[in-house]
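>> received
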Amino acid sequence: MQQDGKSFWPPILRNPITWIGFAIPFGINTINGLSAYYNFIPGINLNSNLPILRRSVVLRLTPRFEVIGLGFLLSLDVSLGVWFFSFVANLQTGIQRLLGFNIGPMQPYSPPAPPSVAHIAMGALCFLVFSSFWNSRHHLKNVVRKAFTGAPDIDDSDELLSYRTAVFGIISGTIMAMFWLYQAGLNFPSATIFLLCCLVAFVGLARIISQTGMAYGVAPVAAPVLTVNALGTPVLGPAGLTALGLSFAWSADIRTFVMASAATGLKIAEITRLEYRRLLWAILLAILTTLIGASWAIVTLAYTYGGINLGGWGFGGLVNYTGRWIAHNITNPEPVHFWHLGFGGLGIVLMGALTWVKNRFIGFPIHPIGLTLGLTWPISNIWFSVFLAWLIKAFVLKYGGARLYMKIRPFFLGMVLGAFTSTGLWLLIDYFGGASHTFTLT
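>> returned
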C-alpha cells in the first residue's frame, strides 16, 4: 500500500543508507561471481586466518556480512557471550594441545573443538534446556491439567495449538518415535537415551536461535555420539550402532531445522501480535511443501544421475562419513566415556554458576547462552563476524546513543539483504548458465 503518499515501498527500502549497506556484499559477491566465469576478472578474497599459541589453533577471521548485519541487532550481552566463549574455546583447545592433554579424537559434528571443549558446551546446553523446563513448571502443570481435565479456568485460545492437542501430540509422537527407533535396531534403554539427547539438542538450539537471533547452529555433541559416549558400544550392538549412524542426517546434521524456524516465527508473531492459529496453517503448509519438494528433488536427481555421481555433502560426504563411523565403532568397541561425561558435568556447573551471576548482578555484560554454542564448525566461522558486530554496536551506543543506533541500523539490514540477494541471484545465473564449477560467496 502507498505510504505517506510517496511510494508503496516500506520506509527501510526508501532509505539510502540501506542501499549503501546492500551494495557492499552485493558488489563483492558480484565481482567474485564474474571472476568464476571470466578468469581475467580478479576476485576479492576476504578469507583470513590467524595461527596462535605456536600454531596449535587457527582463528578464522573471515567477515561474513549477513552475520555482521544480524549480529548488530543482537543485544550486547548476547553478542559478547557468543564471541567471547568461542574465543575462550579456541584458547582452551590450543592450550590443551600445547600441554598434550587429550581425552580422545575429535568426534563427528564437534570439530574443530576437541571432545573436552565440546562436552563442556553440551553440558551447558543440557542445563539450559532442563532449567527452562524447571522455570516453566507451573505453566506446564497448567497445560497438563487443561489437557486431561479440561480446566475451564485455563484459557488456551491464543496458543498455536490447544493444550490437549499439544500434550496428546507429544505423547503419540514419542510413542511413534520409540517404535521407529526400536524397529531400526535400538533397544528400549538406548532408544530412550538417544531420543532424550535429540530433544535436548532440538529444544536447546531452537531456544538459542530464537532468543539470540543467530542464523544457525548445531549441537556441540551430536545426539548419536553422545549416546555412544554415555552407554558404550557393547550395550548398543552392531544393529544399534547402525541405527544411530543412519540417524546422522536428521539428528546431527541440523544447522537449520523445522523447530528452530517455527520458534523464530512464533517469536516474530508475538512481537507483531499476529494471530497464532492462523500462523499454524502457514507453518504446516510450509512444512508440507518443503517435504514434498525436497523428497521429489532428491529422488529425481538420484535416479536420473545416480546418487554416487552427485557430489556435495548430502550424496557423498555424509554417506561416507556415516559408513566409516559405523564400521569404526563396530570393529573398535568403546566403553562408557567417563572423561567425556565428566566434562559434560563441568559444563553443567559452569552454566549454572554463570546463570546465577547473570540473574543476581544487574548489568553483568556476558550472557551465558554463548557457552552452549561451543566451537562447532558454524560457530568457528562466524564468531569473528559477531565480534565485529558487537564492537561496532558498543561503539555506536557509547558515543552516539540510541539515536545513532536507529539511524544506522538500516545499513546493517541492507548488508543482510545484499548478501542473500546476491547469493540467490548467482544461484539462478549458475542454473541457467550451466556452470559446472563452484565458488564461495561471502
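>> The first strand starts at residue 49 and ends at 52.
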